[in-house]
Amino acid sequence: MPALIASLTLSFDGKGGRALDGATAGDTAAPKRTATAGEDPSDDRGTLSIQIENDKFGGGTDQHYTHGMRASYLLSSDATPLDAGVLARALPLMPEQGVVRLGFSIGQSIFTPGRQDVTTAGNHGRPFAGWLYGGVQLTNDTGRQLDSYELQVGVIGPSAGAAETQSWFHDTIGVKPFEGWDSQLSDEMGVVLSYERKWRFISEFHPGGLGVALEPSVGATLGNVHTYASASATLKVGSDVSSDWGAPRIRTALSGTGYFKPVNDIDWYVFAGVEGRAVARNIFLDGNSFADSDSVEKKNFVADLQVGAAVTIGNVRATFTQVFRTKEYVGQTQGDVFGALSLSWRI
Fold it and tell me: What is the C-alpha R_g of the chain?
């Protein structure tokens, strides 16, 4: 037991993102370094990520936040333009040190009421809505701290193509079409600016070769699509918990970044996290900003609990996350459950 206690090192990653392994009291060998997400490695590469989120993964409800998909590419630090670094340093709250990376994304999210809410008399649940957007992201990674800004610009309404996407998907899997899309939110341009700061605290247990990481975060999002403040914490346990900041997710969510740097040929970790959001604006519940539309009375506090696992094989990482979300609006009978699958490649 004393040896186990001595082998546990709580490290706060410093500049350059390097953490030292712990060693037992009698160990005279020099401690080895472990790579972290903030390290500026010689083999730094860009990362392509694809995310699919659907309530058929674990929930099977086909309602509310029913489907989301997103593709993103995070440039390597070497490929990130110098102007992006200059901009990152000029942004509020960004540290003066760290590795800056620039990323781009495109995505679509689909929202519907429950089938039981749609009758011949109309929609008695949350509005039908789609959100088609593109995004640009700047991250600054010191190893122990990740700061990120993301700007999303897109369209809500028929031009988002959500009705067509859902109809195609339902036809593909043999599910009855969803009637009622003619009442969806009207076309409206959407702009969303998000900021988030994460911290990392790491412990490493050498007898079993396992590591533990605690990653709390705070953030804020402002726009006509979403406006909210958030706080979260994620606990990771596995063979390599310091080579990434978690898998990317579709907002609103506990989200990581696409970047990861494998330490071994095969690595893994399991995780659990919770996020609370104080919500001032959610267009998918509140309805259109300037036009009459369907709407419901939103709840001003929403929480997500998520559990999942990540496996890295070579330069490929797969992550599955099960999400449990509290009720989002007054009259909602129960919370929602959906799954998120993320695949990332270092290229």
Answer: 21
CA distances from 133 to 76, 94, 107, 330 (A): 23, 25, 6, 28
Quote the tokens at residue 272.
Answer: 């659990």
Quickly state the pLDDT bin for 249 (edges 50, 70, 90).
confident
What single string gives the DSSP state of each residue in 199-234?
E-EEEEETTTTEEEEEEEEEEEEEESSEEEEEEEEE
Q: Do residues 344 and 48 touch, judged by C-beta distance below 8 A?
A: yes
Q: Which residues have a Cβ under 8 Å from the Cβ of 150 and sit 6 or more positions away?
A: 135, 136, 137, 138, 192, 193, 194, 251
CA distance 47 to 254: 19
Domains, the chain: 32-346 (2.40.128.140)
Q: Read off the amino acid at residue 252.
A: T
| Residue 151 pLDDT class (50, 70, 90 cuts) | very high
Strand locations in the chain (E): 9-11, 19-20, 33-34, 47-54, 64-74, 99-112, 118-119, 122-123, 129-141, 145-156, 188-199, 201-205, 210-223, 226-238, 266-282, 301-313, 316-325, 336-346
Give the whole-angstrom CA distance, residue 229 versus residue 335: 20
Q: What is the pLDDT of residues 299-340, one digit of tens each?
A: 999 999 999 999 999 999 999 999 999 999 999 999 999 999
**Backbone region of residue 263 per phi and psi (left: phi > 0; alpha: psi in -120 to 50; beta: other values):** alpha
pLDDT digits (tens, 9 = 90+) for 17-68: 323 233 333 343 333 333 444 454 456 899 999 999 999 887 778 899 999 9
Tell me how far CA of residue 218 lies from CA of 53, 255, 328, 337, in angstroms. Answer: 23, 11, 20, 23
